[in-house]
Write a structure and sequence with these properties.
Elements: H1 4-27, E1 48-58, E2 67-71, E3 83-91, E4 100-110, E5 117-126, E6 135-143, E7 149-157, E8 164-174, E9 181-191
Antiparallel strand pairs: 1-3, 1-9, 2-3, 3-4, 4-5, 5-6, 6-7, 7-8, 8-9
Length: 192
């Protein structure tokens, strides 16, 4: 028994060292302010690809517009430099009477001096079903006269934490007198 105790002590020391090393490998190396983590520790397993289709209503006219110009460009330029805040309805169909599934909240700004190209910064904030309270965040260039525009999905919240993907925008209707527009969005998102 006396000969076995030192062997057990050595084995327990080796076991402790292996356990400590495996903990560092699983949890990640500490760099003082950040560290790598195994996504499974946060409950994230396999990614899913989801597709969302809805219509974005940019309403500048009427008594209750969903888009409000905040910064107007200088008089000596085209539209370059304007900024518009949005709280645009997202519906299942192109008519405003279609089922409301969320809101596009954020802003867009004219970011080109040569063409009509917008910088889009918005959250698709969902209000329906299992996605209620979750958001998908889009940040990208929108050259509005292209038939189909593609913008990156850079993240989200709720069910869309750590998400990535892209959003395709296609103008459904545009009224040049009022500036009102209805845009069809197809959004493809990888998420956990």
């Amino acid at each position: 028994m006396a000969k076995i105790l030192p062997i057990l002590a050595s084995l327990s020391t080796i076991f402790f060292l292996i356990l400590s090393l495996s903990t560092v490998l699983v949890i990640g190396e500490d760099h003082g302010f950040g560290r790598s983590l195994d996504r499974k520790l946060l409950g994230y397993k396999k990614e899913k690809l989801s597709h969302f289709q809805f219509f974005w209503h940019d309403i500048l006219s009427g008594k209750n517009p969903s888009s409000v110009p905040v910064i107007r460009p200088p008089k000596n330029t085209s539209s370059f430099g304007f900024l518009t805040m949005i709280d645009n309805p997202l519906t299942l169909g192109p008519k405003m009477s279609s089922k409301l599934v969320g809101k596009a909240q954020g802003f867009y700004a004219s970011a080109s001096q040569e063409e009509v190209s917008l910088l889009m910064v918005m959250n698709f904030a969902f209000m329906e079903g299992k996605y209620n309270g979750s958001t998908i965040t889009v940040l990208g260039r929108n050259p509005v006269f292209h038939s189909v525009r593609e913008m990156p999905v850079i993240g989200g919240s709720g069910l869309f934490r750590f998400s990535r993907g892209y959003a395709q925008a296609k103008t459904h209707t545009f009224d040049p007198k009022t500036g009102d527009a209805i845009v069809e969005y197809n959004v493809y998102v990888l998420h956990y």
